What we know:
By secondary structure, the chain is mainly alpha-helical. It folds into 3 domains: 5-111, no CATH class; 126-337, no CATH class; 349-508, no CATH class. Helices cover 48% and strands 6% of the residues. The chain has 17 helices and 8 strands. The chain has helices at residues 11-44, 51-57, 70-80, 93-110, 113-123, 178-184, 193-196, 212-223, 264-274, 277-287, 317-321, 356-375, 383-408, 424-430, 437-445, 448-465, 475-508; strands spanning 127-130, 169-172, 187-188, 191-192, 239-243, 255-259, 303-306, 325-328. It has a two-stranded antiparallel ribbon. A hairpin with a 2-residue loop joins strand 3 (187-188) and strand 4 (191-192). Helix 5 packs across helix 8, helix 12 (356-375) crosses helix 16 and helix 13 (383-408) packs parallel to helix 17 (475-508). The chain is elongated.
Amino acid sequence: MSVERNIFETWAEVIIDFLQGKIEAEEGKYLKEVINIVAKQYSYQKYFNNSEIEKFFDPKKNKKTESQSSVEFQRLKFKHMFDFDEKPEGLNQVMLEEAYLKRCTELAEKYEPHTWIAKASNDASSVNFATHVSKLTHSKIDSPSFYDQVLSQKKGILATSDLKEKIVDGAVSGNQFAPVFQFLELELKGNKLASVFADESNTVLQSFTEKPEELGLWNAGFKRALADSKVSSHFLAKQVYFSITQKDPLSSESYHLLCNVQSSSLAHAIFEKLRETDQENVKKIRDKNKYSIFPNISFPAKATIKVTASNHGNASQLNAKRGGKLELFSSLPPGWKSQLKPPIYQTSLFYADFNYYKVKELIDFLRDFLIRFEKIDLSVKDPKKKKWINGWVNEILDEVLLYATSIQNLPSGWSNTENIKLKQEHQYFLDPYRDDEVFQKARQSTDWQAVICSDFANWLNGRLKGKDKKFTPQREHTRMWKNIIKKELREHTQMIDADIKFQNREQRA
C-alpha cells in the first residue's frame, strides 16, 4: 500500500490502494499470530539452547528495517522460520503453508473491489458522518448522531462553531462497519470520497461495476451515510427537563427536554492540542531540568473520562484514535487564599503562620532521627549523622526564611503600630525597609541577629522535645541550630542591606 496518497490521479487508484492496504493489514496480522504460535513451540524447547533461534523469535532483537513494510517483514519471517535444522515436535510446515495460502485466497476474495464495494454500499446506512456522537455517552445508544452546522459564536463559550477546521467523526452502528467510514474518508486532491456521493449521478465507481444498474445502486447506498437522520433521543442518553414556565408544572409543555450530546469534533481538537509535538518535546526537556525557548503549557486538575472499555471504535472512529479518552478541564472557582498579615500579635516570628504542615513533617523526621541515634549512643559530631541533621534543619530554615521574605515584601512601615507584641529584634529583621531614621540606626547598631538565632534554637528545641519528652536537646544541639541559622541569616541580611543602599542612591539621584 502506498503511503503517499497525493501521487494518485484517479479515484480508482485510491480505492484499489485502500483495499490492498486492508489485505496487507489482515495478512500481516495473521502471519504475526502464526509466528507467535510457532515461537511458543520453540520456547517450550528452550530454543534448543540456540542463540540464533532465540534471537530470530525475539521481537526486540529481530525488527523490520526502515525500508520494509510490516507485511513484508512478516512474510520474510514466516518464510525463514522453517530454515532451522532443529524443529519442535508437531511443527507441521506443510499444513501452516497451506493454511497461509488459503487465508491469502480468502482475503483476495473478501477485498475484491466489486464484491467489497457492493457489500459496503449496503452497509453505508450504518455509518453516519457527525460532529456530535450519541454513543460517546453510552455505546449501546442507537439514536442517530448529528452534524452541527451552526456558525454563530458566543463570547465566553467554547463550542464546535469555534473550530477553524472541524474534524468530522464517524458514528457506526457497530465496529464491523468502520471500514465503510474509512472508505468514505478517502481523499484525492483535497476532496473526500464521501462528498462525491452527494451527487448520485457520479461515475467514480463505474470501473468496478459488472452490470450497468449497479452504479446507481451503489451511489444511492453510499449517499445514505450522508443523509440527515431524524433527530431522536434514547433512554440511555443524559436528559434534563428544563422549566420554561411556572403556569402548569405538571404539563409537558412547561418544560424543554435537553439532551446533552458530546461534541466529538471539539473533543478531538482538544485532544490533539494537548498532544502537540512541540509540547511533548517541552515536557521531555522539563523532566531533564533543561531550558526550552518554548513555553510549557499545563492544565491543572485535568480529568479524563474513558469512553467504552477496550473497543473504542464501537463508539466512534475519532474516539478510537483518542484511545477512548475525553479530557475534562477544571471549572472550579479560584481557591480561597488567606491574606498575608504581619505577625504583630506574636512575640516571635517562629510562632507565626508559616507552612505549618511542611515544617511539622520535617521536625518529626528530625526528632525521630535524633531519638533513634541517641539510643545507640552516637555523638552529634558524627559526620554522617551531622550531614543528615544539617539537611533537615536547613529545610526547616528554608520554610522560615521563605515566610520572612514574604513579610519583608509587604508595604514597609507595618511594624510602626501601636500595641505591637513582636520583639524589636524581629521587627528589624522582618520590616527592614521601614522609612524611619531612628529605627534604621538602631537596626544597624544592634546585634538583633543574635536574638533571632537564639530564638530559632529555643523554638526548634521546644518542638523537638515533644509532648512525650522523649528527646532532651543538649548544648551541642543548641550550638548547631544557632550556627546553621547564623550563616543563612547573615547572607540573607547582606542582600537586604545591599538593596536598601541601592534604593537610597536612587532616591538621592
